[in-house]
Design a protein that fits this description.
This protein is an alpha/beta fold. The protein is built from 14 helices and 14 strands. The longest helix is centred in the last third of the chain and has 21 residues. The protein binds pyridoxal-5'-phosphate. Pyridoxal-5'-phosphate binds next to helix 3.
Length: about 400
């Protein structure tokens, strides 16, 4: 018997309450019962997105919503700026290129804090660009991006800010309306705590206006058509009924916790993870701008084959984390700590890491990492008066 633990940055674990609903018999979508669920989900999504705008639900993964953003916002041949600090930034470039837009890519080495001055230079030299396409959290490097600075630059140069927040929304604060983010995107299998298959996209007033002028080809992903349907609690095509029912429950859980506490929990879990790997003598890749969603850890020189760390953790102990992608393969591994994740998911992940590091030749003082996790949590509890020792 092997018990499995999921500590990867998507799919993330599905709470028991949600899983129970996913297993229920399927209702028809054009019924008053489902329409009620749909309308409550619409309200819940507005709450997590912190917007008055309609949040459109698409039946696809996050990449589908990225593609929908591109195909619905722009006209043939228009110029856009993409920010590539990793695999998902590169995806923006590829999506925009596949629609034959004129793409100006800012490509930076992974793991460095993003310097908005570089972006400002590109904006100033290309005032005809329509938009800046970027991530809020670059999952491939565990890096948090300075979203409000990027949105500020987009405003200054009259460009749209198009933000892939797929490992950011519901993890840390991204108030769409207050910051004036034009397009905000997430996917179901990340902080929304349901299986893959739904993507979410919200557009500002300005962005909706752009969709009316867009002449790029589209059929399935027609955001204006979806918005019209959503307003009457319908979808243009058959919705992912079970996932929307699951989302109804996971949004309830998020509401019960409240956004402020939810953001704090993620900060704390991330801090505990960083403290633990440091206590084990390892370094964090994006140490100066770490994401609260996922921690990318550099494989230490003592471990010859870095790819073996996630492999052994999964195959021998049932703990699934993520490795590095492309040029980071074998050089980093990534521990996720968002969504349905608590203190003891972190202690489990770190204890498994200790065993595996030792097996692969890294000197480990057993318990050092786990101790650092517990100390982080205890310090926080003591600070807030929840623990008196
Ligand atoms: C997971 C993820 C995506 C979407 O990937 P899908 O496989 O399409 O769900 C996009 N951007 C970021 C930052 C992600 O973490």
């Amino acid at each position: 018997m092997m018990k499995n633990y999921l500590l990867a940055p998507g799919p993330t674990p599905v709470p028991e309450r949600v899983a129970a609903i996913l297993g229920m018999p399927i209702p028809h979508h054009r019924t008053p019962g489902f329409e009620k669920v749909f309308s409550e989900v619409r309200a819940g999504l507005k709450w997590v997105f912190q917007t008055e705008q309609e949040v459109i639900m698409l039946t696809c993964t996050g990449t589908g919503a990225m593609e929908a953003a591109v195909s619905n916002l722009f006209k043939r041949g228009q110029k856009v700026i993409t920010v590539n600090t990793g695999k998902f930034g590169e995806r923006w470039t590829k999506v925009a290129q596949s629609y034959e837009l004129a793409v100006l890519e800012i490509k930076l080495p992974p793991g460095l804090p993003f310097d908005p001055a570089i972006l400002e230079e590109v904006c100033a030299a290309n005032p005809d660009a329509e938009a800046i396409l970027f991530q809020a959290s670059e999952t491939s490097t565990g890096s948090r991006m300075p979203v409000s600075d990027i949105v500020g630059l987009a405003k200054k140069y009259k460009m749209l800010s198009v933000c892939d927040a797929i490992t950011a929304l519901g993890v840390f604060d991204l108030p769409m309306d207050a910051w004036g983010i034009d397009v905000l995107i997430t996917g179901s299998q990340k902080a929304m705590m349901i299986p893959p298959g739904l993507a979410f996209i919200a557009l500002s007033e300005t962005a909706w206006k752009k969709t009316a002028e867009s002449d790029l080809p589209k059929f399935y992903f027609n955001l204006a058509k979806e918005k019209k349907a959503h307003l009457t609690n319908q979808t243009a095509w058959t919705p992912a009924i079970s996932l929307i029912m699951g989302l109804h429950e996971s949004l309830k859980m998020m509401k019960e916790e409240g956004l402020e506490k939810l953001f704090k929990r993620h900060e704390l879990l991330a801090l505990a993870t960083r403290n633990a790997v440091k206590a084990l003598g390892l370094d964090v890749l994006s140490a100066k701008s770490p994401s609260p969603a996922v921690t990318a850890v550099l494989v230490p020189p003592s471990v010859k084959e870095g790819k073996k760390i996630p492999k052994l953790m999964r195959d021998k102990y049932g703990v699934t984390i993520a490795g590095g992608q492309d040029e980071l393969e074998g050089k980093i591994f990534r521990l996720s700590h968002f969504g349905y994740c608590s203190y003891f998911d972190i202690t489990t992940g770190i204890s498994c890491l200790e065993l595996v590091l030792a097996e692969l030749g890294h000197p480990v003082n057993f318990g050092a990492g786990v101790g650092a996790v517990l100390k982080t949590f205890a310090d926080d509890e003591i600070k807030s008066g929840g623990l008196k020792i």
